[in-house]
Amino acid sequence: MSTRAPYVLCALVAAAAAAPGNASAGDVALREGRSAYLQLEGFGAALNDGVGGSNITASVGYGGRAGWRRGMIGFFVEFSRDHWLSTEVETELTQGVLGFGAGAEMLFAKERLRISAAGGSSTLLFDTAFHDRGTTGFYIDLRPASLRLSPASWLVVELCPIGFTLVSPAVGDLAIRRIEYRTTLTLEVPL
Amino acid sequence: MTRAATQRILALLLAFAAAAIPAGASAFTVRALDRPACHEEMTRDGFLALVAAGFDAEVAVPVPASHRWKEIAAYLGDDLHAGAEGEAERFMLYSLMLGARYPDLRGASATDIQSLREIHRDPDRQDTHFMRAVDDDYAAGNVAAIARGEAYIRARVDRAASYLAQPADQQIVERSVYVELYGEVSTPVWAPAYYFGMALHTVEDSFSHTVRSDDLTRICHVGNYMEAVTDDYDLERDGLRHSWAMDRCQEEAAELAAAARPAFEDFVAVFATSGEAGWPGAGLDEFFAAWMTLEPGCDDANDYCDSKWAELARTDPSLPLWDSMFGCGAAPGATRGDVPWLAAAVILALAFVRILRRRRAAGGGR
User: How far is residue B198's CA from residue B99's CA, in Å, rounded to a whole number?
Assistant: First the structure.
């Protein structure tokens, strides 16, 4: 990640926000028939507090998604890398978890809004106090309202201000249940 | 993700933490957020001195069948158990260490700001940190605080003794410890060492929360946290504000911590003593006589009887949260953290989350 990355990101968002409001000049037009797409995203989450837990538990990560839509309904498969900040004993950004899953989505308001739900497997990529790397559980990801803008015909920028993700790579007696309130920025390329 | 990006993210998050966490923490630090493991290392060194003096843990300490304590010991850091040999020694040191960490955490996360604030602002439990209670005012407050701290230490040792009198299988009890990603986890501990560790914590704090004579054997003055973090604070009445510098055992307080080491070893040595009345015998009384007597007549006007530690005790004092965040304190070194506005944002966000939770809880209860 270069030092210019945040500025490029801001410029993209600004361009999306400044885009004209009619469909022919860059709006997200409701596409008839079928369409496929690819997405790349980055996310961060702070204040992932469970009751009685740390107040500064944070995470950052990225992911990719391949989807298919018919009208306003779509389905997708996805992966994500979620790095966790460890603070309790020593401070380090751990390898976190690797997620693979699938989900469904729905678009509203001329495709300016997207709601989605996904779930799948979540695999630990580092050793914890009670579990070894490779331990696999599940995750659930809910995004109640993602805002979508299309600055160009080949690009959709999507911002999910806050989503809810339950990551549980270890289940059973001693389980890891981590709740993340993620903010996600996604770039979508229609195929 | 590149190393530079990772470092940038870590720097931001640590800035939040650095500004916010000290608001709730006090005493020689426990291991968390890259802070030194002061209490743990003092406890370990005292224990190793006990073993070097001939204490045989293999004879005295029952070891549980469960291996969970080993996993938690490894999680806390293998270095904290370095030097302990054999399962009995390691289990005793583990139990001592969890006891020594307990008064600062009580089973909560070391980065749970609300819990830390409640723990360290508990008006009924200032004795666990060897500090003045709210009513411990003026010179008499030193006498009262020392008496209360001593009473707490004796009570914890008595609790340890009561477990030691029981059959070996009943000496192992389950206690809670916070483990990152898992929350509160139950672990077996050897109760005599666990409660002795709590007492040891207070003994250790009696060096970071007081102004002592140059040789550390006498207490000139007991510090204050309860009023120190409010606007209703008066130096003459309430005593010297708690000092963050005194807690940093590997920085400003390194000399103090090193000089206090014989006292910690003397206290842990009490574990191996006994008398006609049973354990711990006269060893505990001898410890108090050697290290916990009050030097009367010391106050701010005479620089706490010209103690060499007075300047350190005045450095980086605890202040009301607002002052410490925005640098309004008059005392030198008063400001905390490099990003006070970010800390304010964090705290406001936390308050908002808490209000939402309470509303949900109230709604659910109807």
Answer: 5
